[in-house]
Design brief:
By secondary structure, this protein is an alpha+beta fold.
Length: 85
């Protein structure tokens, strides 16, 4: 889960292409099946990972341009138990 800065929409444009490319790479590698913004306007982001080691998630967030630029003000990692196929 990502929490966004209040002015995220205004600030994200220069970083959006690289942010989406990072997501696309992890998706094509099979490590990130789904991701997207929450709210209208967006106030947070949800990214679901399919990895064994939580350190991989930390590696993703460390490389994310939104995190580097301060658009993401905080993040947390929580296990998700999927109950539907």
């Amino acid at each position: 889960m990502y929490e966004y800065a209040e002015d995220a929409l205004e600030r994200r444009a220069p970083y959006r292409e690289d942010h989406l490319a990072l997501i696309a790479k992890w998706n094509s590698d099979g490590k990130l099946p789904i991701a997207g913004a929450l709210g209208d306007p967006p106030h947070a982001g949800f990214i679901a990972f399919d990895v064994e080691d939580p350190q991989e998630i930390e590696a993703f967030t460390s490389a994310d341009p939104y995190v580097e630029a301060g658009i993401v003000t905080s993040h947390r990692i929580e296990p998700w138990t999927v109950v539907t196929p």
